[in-house]
Write a structure and sequence with these properties.
The complex is a heterodimer of chains A (223) and B (620).
Chain A: H1 3-21, H2 26-38, H3 40-45, H4 50-67, H5 85-103, H6 108-120, H7 125-135, H8 139-152, H9 156-169, H10 174-186, H11 190-198, H12 205-222
Helix pairs in contact in A: 4-5, 5-6, 5-7, 7-9, 8-9, 9-10, 10-11, 11-12
Chain B: E1 5-15, H1 21-29, E2 38-45, H2 50-60, E3 63-69, E4 73-75, H3 80-90, E5 94-98, E6 100-102, E7 116-118, E8 134-135, E9 141-143, E10 146-147, E11 151-154, H4 171-181, E12 185-189, E13 196-198, H5 210-219, H6 221-224, E14 231-234, H7 244-251, E15 255-258, H8 270-282, E16 287-291, H9 295-304, E17 307-311, E18 330-334, H10 337-344, E19 351-353, H11 360-364, H12 370-376, E20 378-383, H13 392-396, H14 401-413, H15 430-439, H16 452-480, E21 483-487, E22 498-502, H17 510-516, E23 517-522, H18 534-542, E24 546-549, H19 554-557, E25 565-567, H20 570-582, H21 584-601, H22 604-617
Parallel strand pairs in B: 1-2, 1-3, 5-12, 7-8, 14-15, 14-16, 16-17, 17-18, 18-19, 20-21, 20-23, 21-22, 23-24, 24-25
Antiparallel strand pairs in B: 3-11, 4-13, 5-11, 6-7, 6-10, 9-12
The chains are: A mainly alpha (223), B alpha/beta (620).
């Protein structure tokens, strides 16, 4: 398709999407996401438009949020608080810049600002994870740093969600597994903490010791 | 005369109300300011154009060092100011520094259409339909033609060209050229860490500054006049794995970009056409090039109005008998004069005869080991298909015997006779042709508007003739000599005493076969009526001795008996094999002559220069 035609099609599609995004409810979101999957015109033109690619990512995140168990910690989903493509851009940018602030080690108060932005937009752990994978330079390190930051900010549920995704993606990262285990312990979930430590390949003596302790505690609990 | 403060660094930002400014300023506030230095900041709101805004900031500050920054650019390297000062201090000729740039700006003035150097972090795909590189800078810095405009640091003030720049694009190209015109260097330093992180990606849906781009091309034409070589998009098909042309373009130092997707050669695919159109519209290519003719490529080029050149090395090429082949943008070269005559009456816009050429440098550089000598050494070799099982017999299976007899008679009449005359085409009766055509699967010809006689003769009769001739010749030679055949299907019951090996790799093994065989046979496919097949050129380019069937066009380019030798029939072939196996010196002398001739006159580069003259200067 030539550029002019594509531009016209993109503008028309965006108009339609924007009207669909107003006063969103679950039903409307579902219809929008279905339409995006089924529309050959949309599929053709989205690759050349950053806004549409961002919407595409949001739709993908939404499908995952709805189908997986990440929903347990959510008050809203990725489309919460947006009523247009421009608002999706703003919401996305907030997450991106927050992630970058932690990665670029800006002073603490500015990182806090970034996290507050994530809270304001009701980002789920899964959504943060997806955006981090897309935007971050060093995924592993940044994910761990972000999770620790969330833990400090007493957002343990979100931190756990993020780390669960992290240990799956980076199974060899011992620090991540330890961090998750620690959070489970704090939450009183001994079995889950034990399972985390059990996943560690080549555990240190310290970790072995911890595992043994946990085993005893779990047995006692069972009794 | 303005007095500059050598201890001051000024940030100048033109804000066109993007939401990124706040974040940009945050990162600026975190930078380490070198001892003894101070910084200042000018944010220009509501500048009519970027050039005006930057000039305003530039004049307002007496800082020696100025950093022109877009709000989209986050300066993440905290020690950047010291690094800049050190670099400027190390060489007073350095006028401007950027975090990445282009050492050779493409002739369309769009930096990301060519190879770049430096360090950049942008998460989205770059030029997703084309391969371009961003090279690291190894030494202290690399001098470039232009730097990218999100971050531009200067140690001298030069006015921004408000007269040329009336928008918000190409300011980086303009200012880089201004610095170079003034005799300064524009550089990209080596960056161990990332300096600049961009909030926004590149505008994926084409930049909006076409009018601006044209002004740049006019104003700075002195920088672009040396870039008069064509800018080429090379497209690979799904069936052809050759890259000699591409390699040649690179050796000729042309701006050539490889299209990232392999395009289906046998069908017009709408989504592939779309991808091509996008790429062609996004960039300014002078020419698109493929091996053989790809209809989808032609459709896309016709849509956008870009010339499309097909280097045809198959004969016949049925895709030249499609409606797409008649598109006005097509430039098609064929290597068989007779083929060319046939095509010229088909209404193709531009079709011309050019002989093939060969990879003179690559093939001449082939290295031979002892192991190669054992593996590929031979008295007589032939590298080629035998064209068995091409559906000829099936055509006559249930039909009247007389048709098969007629076909066989035509094939046998002048089998293995090469006297420069045509003994195959135009001989079959209309009845035989109609019968054959009725038996051929429509799928074989539906897409092509090719004369049915020519289709039957070239695709059926000629191929069967190839099979007969190659088997006959190889068997005859093998009665007296050691013959090695490299072919597709190694189960050849029709051959006796011939050593059969599987296909060899074109680039790495084939040259060794040619180099280590005392005599390299060529038996031209009968569908090549007068032309010289690729095999002959390649044998000579390696320095091999070529003994070929006579083809009319050989005498246009070679001295027979001096650069190579020919045979007209099997008896002559055997005679010459006997002779040349016994007369090594003469054989080697002929091989050397052929090698020199091809090197001097028949490289890809030489041929392409002639072809480009035809395409761009309208010769012939």
């Amino acid at each position: 398709m030539k550029r002019e035609e594509r531009s016209k099609v993109v503008n028309e599609i965006k108009e339609e999407i924007n009207s669909g995004l107003m006063d969103l409810d679950l039903y409307k979101v579902k219809n929008l996401v279905l339409w995006m999957l089924q529309s050959s015109e949309y599929q053709k033109v989205k690759m050349n438009d950053e806004q549409l690619m961002r919407l595409d990512l949001f739709a993908d995140i939404w499908r995952q949020e709805k189908s997986d168990l990440y929903a347990f910690e959510m008050q809203g989903d990725i489309f919460a608080g947006v009523a247009s493509l421009d608002e999706i851009d703003k919401k996305y940018q907030c997450a991106k810049l927050a992630i970058w602030r932690i990665e670029n080690k800006v002073p603490y108060e500015y990182c806090v600002e970034g996290i507050e932005c994530l809270e304001k937009y009701q980002y789920s752990a899964y959504a943060i994870y997806r955006i981090l994978l897309r935007e971050s330079k060093n995924h592993e390190k940044n994910l761990l740093d972000l999770a620790r930051f969330l833990k400090e900010r007493e957002q343990s549920v979100k931190a756990i969600g993020l780390l669960q995704l992290g240990v799956k993606k980076f199974p060899r990262n011992m620090d991540m597994a330890m961090e998750l285990a620690d959070l489970w312990l704090t939450a009183g979930q001994l079995k889950r903490a034990y399972d985390c430590l059990a996943e560690i390949e080549k555990p240190t003596n310290e970790i072995q010791g911890l595992k043994q302790e946990l085993e005893k505690l779990i047995k006692n609990e069972a009794i | 005369m303005k007095r500059y403060d050598e201890s001051k660094i000024c940030f100048i930002i033109c804000d066109n109300h993007e939401q990124d400014l706040e974040e940009c300023l945050l990162y600026l506030s975190l930078l380490e300011v070198p001892e003894g230095f101070e910084t200042e900041l000018f944010v220009i709101d509501d500048a009519e154009t970027l050039a005006k805004g930057y000039n305003e900031g530039m004049h307002a500050s007496n800082a020696k060092y100025k950093i022109y920054l877009r709000p989209n650019a986050l300066v993440v390297e905290k020690k950047i100011l010291q690094k800049l000062i050190d670099l400027f201090g190390s060489d007073k000729q350095i006028g401007m520094i950027g975090s990445f740039g282009s050492a050779s700006l493409p002739k369309d003035a769009i930096m990301w259409h060519g190879d770049m150097c430096g360090k950049v972090y942008r998460p989205e795909d770059w030029n997703k339909n084309c391969h371009t590189e961003i090279a690291e800078v190894g030494n202290k810095y690399r001098e470039v033609e232009v730097i990218q405009g999100d971050f531009m640091a200067t140690q001298y003030d030069l006015p921004w060209r408000e007269d040329v720049l009336d928008g918000w694009s190409f300011y980086d190209v303009s200012h880089s050229f201004e610095f170079r015109r003034a005799g300064y260097k524009v550089v990209v330093p080596a960056q161990n860490t990332l300096w600049i992180q961009h909030i926004k990606g590149r505008d994926m849906e084409l930049y909006h500054g076409e009018a601006q781009r044209q002004k740049i091309l006019t104003e700075y034409k002195d920088f672009f006049t040396i870039k008069n070589k064509p800018r080429i998009l090379f497209v690979h098909s799904d069936k052809i794995r050759l890259a000699g042309l591409l390699g040649c373009f690179m050796e000729m130092e042309l701006e050539v970009i490889e299209f990232a997707h392999r395009i289906k050669i046998l069908e017009v695919n709408a989504s592939e056409v779309d991808l091509l159109i996008e790429t062609l519209e996004e960039s300014s290519f002078d020419l698109v090039v493929t091996y053989d003719f790809i209809a989808s490529v032609s459709v896309a080029c016709e849509e956008v109005g870009v010339k499309y050149y097909s280097w045809v090395y198959d004969s016949p090429l049925l895709s030249l008998y499609t409606k797409e082949a008649k598109n006005s943008v097509n430039y098609i070269s064929v290597f068989d004069k007779k083929q060319c005559e046939r095509l010229q009456v088909e209404g193709l816009a531009h079709v011309k005869y050019f002989p093939l050429a060969t990879e003179v440098n690559l093939f001449a550089a082939v290295k031979i080991t002892e192991e190669d000598e054992k593996k590929y050494g031979a008295d007589v070799s032939f590298l080629g298909r035998l064209y068995e099982k091409r559906g000829f017999e099936e055509l006559f299976q249930d039909g009247p015997q007389e048709y098969l007899e007629e076909a066989e008679a035509i094939l046998r009449e002048k089998l293995c006779q090469w006297d420069g005359e045509n003994h195959l085409y135009g001989k079959a009766s209309d009845e035989l042709i109609s019968y054959m055509y009725s038996k051929i699967e429509p799928a074989e010809y539906t897409n092509y508007n090719v004369d049915k006689r020519y289709f039957c003769e070239s695709m059926k009769l000629a191929r069967k003739c190839n099979e007969y001739e190659r088997v006959e010749l190889l068997n005859k030679v093998a009665e007296k000599h050691n013959v090695t055949l490299y072919t597709e299907n190694t189960e050849q019951s029709a051959l006796s005493n011939v050593k059969i090996h599987p296909w060899v790799d074109y680039l790495y093994e084939m040259p060794k076969v040619f180099a280590l065989s005392k005599i390299n046979l060529n038996i031209t496919s009968r569908s090549i009526e007068t032309g010289i097949p690729q095999r002959v050129w390649d044998i000579l380019a390696v320095g091999g001795f070529c003994l070929t069937n006579y083809q009319q066009e050989l005498e246009d380019y070679f001295e027979i008996g001096k650069d190579l030798d020919v045979y007209h029939n099997p008896e002559e072939l055997l005679e010459k094999i006997d002779y040349y196996l016994k007369n090594e010196k003469e054989r080697l002398r002929i091989a050397l002559n052929g090698y020199k001739k091809v090197r001097e006159y028949h490289s890809y580069e030489k041929r392409l220069q002639e072809i480009f003259e035809w395409i761009f200067e309208g010769e012939g």
